[in-house]
Every structure is written in structure tokens, then in C-alpha cells.
Design brief:
acyltransferase activity, transferring groups other than amino-acyl groups; 7-stranded mixed sheet; GNAT superfamily N-acetyltransferase; Aminopeptidase; Acyl_CoA_acyltransferase; 24% helix; 189 residues; alpha+beta
């Protein structure tokens, strides 16, 4: 069965475009960089966050391919923790000419709707803008971009726009409807 899939691409072209969200109340949520490149941890975050919204593009990657992604110079994963438990993440992919893509961003389902997402996206976008400060061989960031689609959560697009991302491209295509993979095979069966 096929579905109509809409993909929106959004961008910021200056650090001043970022409109940060307030952090959640209390000091239970902290955001830390995963400084040790770990294919296992990256895959855990990917499946835990994207399992119910049909993230599947990386599921067929080998361990070696996954490790190459997390070891790429300038690639970073920032993780939100709520009381010590991973709640979600932002993955930054450095590209040529001072461009940084937010390739993955989201929350584990149990942590959605708790005002963590806007804060995590704000923090991740700010880290995309100051990426060259942590990677001296990298030129300063000139553009931060991301994409979202009609399969993502109902609040995704509004969150991106509230953080100052502007739409620059829209694609509509027919795609095969896939099963929701869950965080492990059969989790949502």
C-alpha cells in the first residue's frame, strides 16, 4: 500500500535566527554530548526515538557503517537526560562549506509532551552554530538545516518554526507504507 509522503526542508542562515525555548521547569533535564563515538548508543537512540514514527533508513546499516557515521570528524550527538534516563537526542552532521545538518532529532515516546523537545532542539541548533569552536579544523557554521516529514510527530513542524527555522523546500511523493519498526523487532505488534 502506498501513502503520500510530504518532506519539508527548513533552515537557519544566521545564529540570530535561533529563537530558544525555555528549559523545562526544575533541574531534572540535562543535555550532554555523547563524547565517545558509539555505534551501539547511537543505534539505541535512533530506534528508541524513531521506532514509533517509522524511522527505518538506518536499520539495515552494518556495525561498521554505523561506527563510521559516529566517528566522522565534527559529527556530534547531544542527549537530553531526565533524572539520568535518556529522553531524546539531536545528531549533528557537518557538511561542506560551513553547513551543518540536524540529521536526527526527537524524544523517546515516554518523554514527549513534557516541554523537553523545544529545549533540546534549541540546544542542538546552538551547538550546530558553535560546532567550529569544538572542531578547530572546521570552518564556522554559515547554515543549519534539517528536514521533517508527514510521518513525524504532529508538533514537529511547529517546534522547528518556533525555533526560527524557515521552510526552503517541500517535496511530495508516493511511498510504500512501512510497518512501525519499534525500538526492537515486534515491539508494536
Amino acid at each position: 500500500m502506498s501513502i503520500t509522503l510530504t518532506t519539508w526542508s527548513l533552515e537557519q542562515t544566521s545564529p540570530s535566527d535561533l529563537r530558544p525555548a525555555a528549559p523545562p521547569e526544575g533541574d531534572d533535564v540535562v543535555i550532554r554530548r555523547a563524547e565517545v563515538p558509539s555505534a551501539e548508543f547511537s543505534r539505541f537512540l535512533y530506534t528508541a526515538v524513531g521506532g514509533d514514527i517509522r524511522w527505518s533508513d538506518r536499520l539495515s546499516l552494518t556495525y561498521k557503517q554505523w561506527q563510521e557515521i559516529v566517528e566522522k570528524p565534527g559529527a556530534e550527538i547531544w542527549v537530553a537526560y531526565d533524572k539520568g534516563t535518556p529522553a531524546g537526542y539531536v545528531e549533528l552532521d557537518p557538511q561542506d562549506d560551513g553547513v551543518v545538518e540536524i540529521v536526527y532529532f526527537g524524544l523517546i515516546p515516554a518523554f514527549r509532551g513534557r516541554r523537553i523537545g523545544g529545549h533540546l532542539l534549541s540546544y542542538g541548533a546552538a551547538r550546530a552554530w558553535d560546532l567550529a569552536e569544538r572542531w578547530p579544523d572546521r570552518e564556522p557554521t554559515k547554515r543549519v538545516w534539517l528536514h521533517t516529514c508527514s510521518l513525524d510527530g504532529p508538533h514537529a513542524m511547529a517546534n522547528y518554526e518556533r525555533r526560527g527555522f524557515r521552510l526552503f523546500d517541500t517535496k511530495v511523493e508516493e511511498a510504500e507504507e512501512s510497518e512501525t519498526p519499534g525500538p526492537w523487532p515486534g515491539a508494536y505488534a
